Amino acid sequence: MDSEQAVSLEARVDDLLSRMTMTEKIGQMSQLNWDSTGLHQAVRAGRVGSVLNLVDVQETNHLQKLAMEESRLGIPLLMGRDVIHGFKTVFPIPLGQAASWNPGVLAEGARIAALEAASAGINWTFAPMIDITRDPRWGRIAESLGEDPYLCKTLATAAVRGYQGTDLAAPGAIAACAKHFAGYGASESGRDYNTVNLPEIELRNVYLPPFEAAADAGVATFMTSFSELNGVPASADTFLLKQVLRKEWGFRGMVVSDWSSIPQMTTHGFTSGDRDAAFAAANAGVDMEMASSTYAAHLQSLVDEGRIPESDIDAMVARILQLKLRLGLFDNPYTDPADFPAIANPAHLEAARRAAVQSCVLLKNDHRLLPLSAEQPGAIAVIGPLADEAREQLGTWVFDGDPQYTQTGLQGLRTLLGERATIRFSKGLEHSRSKSHEGFADAVKAARDSDVVILFAGEEAILSGEAHCRADIGLPGHQEALIDEIAATGKPIVLVVMAGRPLTLESVMPKVDAILYAWHPGTMGGPAIADLLFGNEVPSGKLPVTLPRMVGQIPIYYARKNTGKPANPETFVHMDEIPVNTPQTSTGMTAMHLDAGFTPLFPFGYGLSYSEFKYGNISTSAAAIGPGDSIRISAEISNDGAFTAEEVVQLYIRDLVGNVTRPVRELKGFKRIRLKPGQCATVSFDIHTDDLAFYNRDMKFAAEPGLFHAWVGGDSNAVLRTEFSIAGQL
Ligand code: NOJ
Questions:
Q1: pLDDT attached to residue 540
Q2: DSSP string, 616-648
Q3: Which parts of 373-467 are beta strand (E)?
Q4: Share of the chain above pLDDT 70, in %
Q5: Is the preceding omega at residue 182 within 30 degrees of 0, hence cis?
């Protein structure tokens, strides 16, 4: 927006505000669900600023008409909806999209979601969710972009641009929402809505950077979290909302509460009732209340009593009106679906297929079992409760996702292989939680009669997402028993995991030959998986989150601290190997679990290819740089394998000494490159000293002089290392 536009926008807002009654102002601050009693009348009376969850375009147009033509001031409505990973064309769950490490995938997924949703009259989505989480028990890890602030902020920026485009008023652009502000992903024990305790330094260094990046990218709105942070529910957190968001980051967009999170502050034990809660939220600067009505019931009297200054109300309403103006709603509040590309059209489906291809992570591929031969596929047993589940593979929180467009794994394989293959399908288990072995014999027979088994296991969609947390994150039901029986046939097994979170798969590992982690891959998961398994595509996804061996290791993440007694691979002895009567201190006294060791099953950033990438010749442009300078870190990557393939080249650094201790590694850059067999490339990363800054003990954001290590490689265990310094004195 140029300055002239900003002035005219402000003038229009001022004009409207000058004509609004307090009831109308509070009306703008109220968002009602589409099925609220008396909605039409409330819209006519100017008592609603936004409607939630309406996707029938005739009805959205009708409500807009009531707002425009029958309310006194003709203010259009914000139409909000959770369009989290696609509207009708469903993309992989956000965690899966994050596994692509490709901002382009996020941007395109968001753009298509926006286009399809806008064709139903939606002009505001509650995405992206950018809560860092290091707890796979938490069901909402599915909606997240993983454990790392750098990866998350890079992908979040892309998603915001995808939803909003460069001009919110352009057709098909919708307002995005950075949620949930803040700290929600650190809910104790991975239980949703649970208590969050985060020291400010951790909050600022790990949990806030994606939100700041979203604000910098121009995200139109923020949503507060359901959770409390250090004793204060987020919807009343003046530190977060006033100090950090408004003052430090200068965010001028709009803040919405989460669903009834304002009255829930009383349940938290923070406010004494709705009136108190309305005061606390308005006082913190929550501009709009979602679903509940404490603002409608109490703001007027709070203003009358002088507890909330009218100027505060005006500032909040102004932010809402500004968004409506920026969306162009005053000029064009109506939607004609004919102005939009068709829902789930071939281009959208192809984009969803590409996203799913890049989201799948190859974790294991013994004896190069994959890719399977598409020319001579032989007989294939397709087994498992998730092989042909159109709805389940869409994943969590897809209210509009339509299984009629889904292509399942089984369908994908059938379409790809046609008559060339004999496909024997046997579910084995009715669903992922089933404990009935009734279908085992048939599945075993299918395996015996085939050359190879493709086994689709994991979690149904309902086992992840909001309020769907698990304490045991192994394969549910008797899926592992099914794998045992299939493995006993001796046939090679390709395990395709469809899940909304990292699962603990250590015990499954030796029983299968290959593992492709597909997350919940969305509408086009089937063709994507078939293309990957049969070599039309080469896996290139990388884990956006650490895969633990067992639940007791959680939280386990790559950017850990070293501790004063780091685990030592040389002295580690598993508890089963410790002789009886061993003296207490003889096992090394280091930071490890006697039963799980100290390493994850797979590290952050990990993912195999069918090709082979070799890293070498790491260098820096200087041995030392001064504050404010940049350094270039380069390495050579060659494709020594037989496939043209993509690799995500990753840069990690370690700041060896800090005013506060620093993580053993931090991701500072990544690039996705494509190399032909035999091809070599030099990949460079330019790092400014600001990129090395962190919040220190005095809560100052600064880079510190001293020595840094830098690694370039294909995952967070990269071994190719160099070093450099920032010159100067602390
Ligand atoms: C509650 C969820 O926490 C939030 O993410 C979502 O946008 C709202 N409900 C609206 O559905």
A1: 98
A2: EEEEES-SEE-TT-EEEEEEEEEE-SSS-EEEE
A3: 379-383, 422-426, 452-458
A4: 100
A5: yes
Task: For residues 518 and 609, give the distance between their C-alpha atoms in angstroms, rounded to a whole number.
Answer: 14
Sheet holding 78-81, edge to edge: 124-125, 78-81, 50-52, 30-33, 289-290
pLDDT for the residue numbered 730: 59
Distance in angstroms (rounded) separating the CA atoms of residues 533 and 544: 21
- Three-state SS string over 515-560 comes to EEECCCCCCCHHHHHHHHHCCCCCCCCCCCCCECCCHHHCCCCCCC
Whose Cα sits closest to atom 11 in ligand 1?
82
What confidence tens digit (pLDDT) does each residue in 17-73 have? Answer: 999 999 999 999 999 999 999 999 999 999 999 999 999 999 999 999 999 999 999
pLDDT band for position 258 (50/70/90)? Answer: very high
What pLDDT does 651 receive?
99
Tell whether ligand 1 has an atom less than 6 A from the beta carbon of residue 258.
yes
Cβ of 179 less than 6 Å from ligand 1: yes
Q: What share of the chain is helix, strand, coil (3-state, %, to 5)?
A: 35, 20, 45
Among 430, 428, 471, smallest CA distance to 453 is for 428
474: exposed, middle or buried (C-beta count within 10 Å: 0-12, 13-18, 19+)?
middle
Ligand 1: centre distance to CA 220 (Å): 17
**How many angstroms separate the alpha carbon of residue 80 from the centre of ligand 1?**
10
For residues 335 and 62, the answer to whether their CB atoms sit within 8 Å is no
Band (pLDDT 50/70/90 cuts) for residue 4 is confident
Q: Is the pTM of this model over 0.90?
A: yes
Cα distance between residue 87 and residue 79, in whole Å: 14
Q: Render pLDDT for 105-132 as a digit per residue (tens, 0 to 9).
A: 999 999 999 999 999 999 999 999 999 9
Distance from residue 398's CA to the centre of ligand 1 (Å) = 12
Instruction: State whether the Cα torsion 160-133-278-308 is positive or negative.
Output: negative
Binding site membership of 466 for ligand 1 (Cβ less than 6 Å): yes
User: Tens of pLDDT along 275-329?
Assistant: 999 999 999 999 999 999 999 999 999 999 999 999 999 999 999 999 999 999 9
Q: Is residue 190 left, alpha or beta, with left meaning phi > 0 and alpha meaning psi from -120 to 50? A: left
Q: pLDDT by residue (tens digit) across 344-400? A: 999 999 999 999 999 999 999 999 999 999 999 999 999 999 999 999 999 999 999
Cα of 673 vs centre of ligand 1, distance in Å, is 36
124 lines ligand 1 (CB under 6 A): no
Query: How many other CB atoms sit within 10 Å of the CB of residue 347?
Result: 12
Q: What is the largest CA-CA distance in the chain?
A: 85
Q: Could you tell me which of 214, 95, 29, 168 has the C-alpha nearest to residue 500?
A: 95
Q: Which of 495, 517, 248 is nearest to 359 (CA)?
A: 517
258 part of the active site: yes
In a mutational test of the pocket of ligand 1, which residue from 223, 398, 464 has the highest number of ligand atoms less than 8 Å from its CB? 223
Q: 620 pairs with which residues across the strands?
A: 633
Task: Specify the ligand 1 atom closest to the Cα of 129.
Answer: 5
* pLDDT for residue 728: 86
Q: CA-to-CA distance for 69 and 40, rounded, in angstroms?
A: 12
Q: Which of 131, 135, 258, 274 is catalytic?
A: 258
Indicate if ligand 1 lies below 6 Å from the C-beta of 126: yes
- Helices (H) and strands (E) counted in the chain, each on its own, are 19, 26
